[in-house]
Write a structure and sequence with these properties.
By secondary structure, this protein is mostly helical. It is built from 6 helices and 2 strands. A two-stranded antiparallel sheet has the order 1-2. This is Mn-dependent DtxR family transcriptional regulator. Belongs to the DtxR/MntR family. Keywords: DNA-binding, Transcription, Transcription regulation.
Length: about 120
Amino acid sequence: MIHESGEDYLETILLLYSRNGYVRSIDIANELNYTKPSVSRAMSILKKSNYIEIDKSGHILLTDKGKLTAEKIAERHKFIAEFLINVLGVSKENAYNDSCRIEHVISEESFQQIKEYLKTTVN
């Protein structure tokens, strides 16, 4: 089982890769405003757990397992933020900040209900 911070790192790697086409530790540190040693330690843990690979150039790549986990977290983040904005009227900034915390603790049942509600009501 991956911890909340590991999920945040994976989601950030997915985001940075889609934005830049590559990801380095320094990119993650800059994006999350973390120190490079903290990111290096986290990357070591994620690598040992088979969520990422690091190539000879120092580029960080998600494994299939890592990509699946990152996409799941990103989906939760997106739908929860949309729900907070479109249904509850929460400001965009607060919705994205809150969804980042909620995505880690919400049950699969509750998430699926939010997702279904948005698909049938908001669109």
